[in-house]
């Protein structure tokens, strides 16, 4: 088994299953903060999927997309927490 | 928001993201990238700075109103589209290319100026929308 088969048949299903589980948590999540954390984790899994796909398809230019995704992934969490705090102050 | 970590990260990430956006803009002819994505990345850099340091600081950093970038970008794009009609007599939006390679940029042509116009328009639109929303909330 070479590295491409390993990534395609073992790592990719694991990542897909984990993203499905996180998405269920995102839909069910009792409180808003649970959903925000689930969204953050979804973005992180997306970065992993892009990186693995770039190795499988032998295209290093996809890695730049994963890099910019990783740089700004925390921005959504920051923005959500910013507006949650603002809403609490307004109430 | 008063957070020392976020402030430090934003001052480090702002030049890095703008550099990356210019890289994506220049690479856009043959590889993934281009004016639209580069403009979005540059707008995200300023939005991150606005979250960390407050809106007034970011306005001071940009100096001009971001809406001013929209007509400038549109003018650059329209001029690059009309350049073949004016200079060589070809139909509008024909790609004009300079024959020699330039050190870092590679082949330079009217498509690069069109992309630069798109880049400025996207930055202007994104920053105008986000600043208006964060003022009203």
From TrEMBL, chain A:
The chain crosses the membrane at residues 6-24, 36-56, 62-84. Pfam families: MrpF_PhaF. It is found in: Cell membrane. Keywords: Antiport, Cell membrane, Ion transport, Membrane, Transmembrane, Transmembrane helix, Transport. The keyword tRNA processing does not apply. NCBIfam families: PRK12599.1-2. It is a multi-pass membrane protein. It comes from Brumimicrobium aurantiacum. GO terms for cellular component: plasma membrane. It comes from the Bacteria. Belongs to the CPA3 antiporters (TC 2.A.63) subunit F family. InterPro entries: MrpF/PhaF-like. One of its GO terms (molecular function) is sodium:proton antiporter activity. This is Cation:proton antiporter.
TrEMBL record, chain B:
It is found in: Cell membrane. The keyword Transmembrane applies. Residues 5-127 form the Na+/H+ antiporter MnhB subunit-related protein domain. Its main location: membrane. Keywords: Cell membrane, Membrane, Transmembrane, Transmembrane helix. The chain crosses the membrane at residues 12-30, 36-55, 67-88, 108-133. Signal peptide: none annotated. It is a multi-pass membrane protein. One of its GO terms (cellular component) is plasma membrane. Belongs to the CPA3 antiporters (TC 2.A.63) subunit B family. This is Na+/H+ antiporter subunit B. It comes from Brumimicrobium aurantiacum.
């Amino acid at each position: 088994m070479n590295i491409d088969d390993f990534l395609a048949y073992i790592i990719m299903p694991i990542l897909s299953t984990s993203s499905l589980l996180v998405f269920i948590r995102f839909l069910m999540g009792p409180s808003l903060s649970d959903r925000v954390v689930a969204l953050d984790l979804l973005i992180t899994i997306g970065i992993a999927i892009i990186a693995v796909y770039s190795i499988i398809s032998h295209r290093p230019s996809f890695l730049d997309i994963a890099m910019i995704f990783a740089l700004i992934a925390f921005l959504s969490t920051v923005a959500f927490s910013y507006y949650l705090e603002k809403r609490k102050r307004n109430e | 928001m008063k957070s020392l970590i976020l402030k430090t990260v934003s001052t480090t990430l702002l030049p890095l993201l703008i550099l990356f956006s210019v890289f994506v803009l220049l690479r856009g002819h043959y590889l993934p990238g281009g004016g639209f994505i580069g403009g979005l990345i540059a707008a995200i850099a300023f939005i991150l700075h606005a979250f960390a340091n407050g809106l007034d600081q970011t306005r001071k950093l940009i100096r001009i109103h971001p809406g001013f970038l929209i007509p400038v970008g549109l003018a650059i794009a329209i001029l690059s589209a009309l350049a073949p009609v004016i200079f060589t007599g070809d139909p509008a939006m024909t790609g004009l290319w300079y024959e020699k390679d330039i050190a870092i940029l590679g082949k330079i042509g009217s498509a690069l100026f069109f992309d630069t116009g798109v880049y400025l328009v996207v930055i202007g639109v994104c920053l105008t929308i986000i600043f208006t929303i964060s003022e009203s909330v």
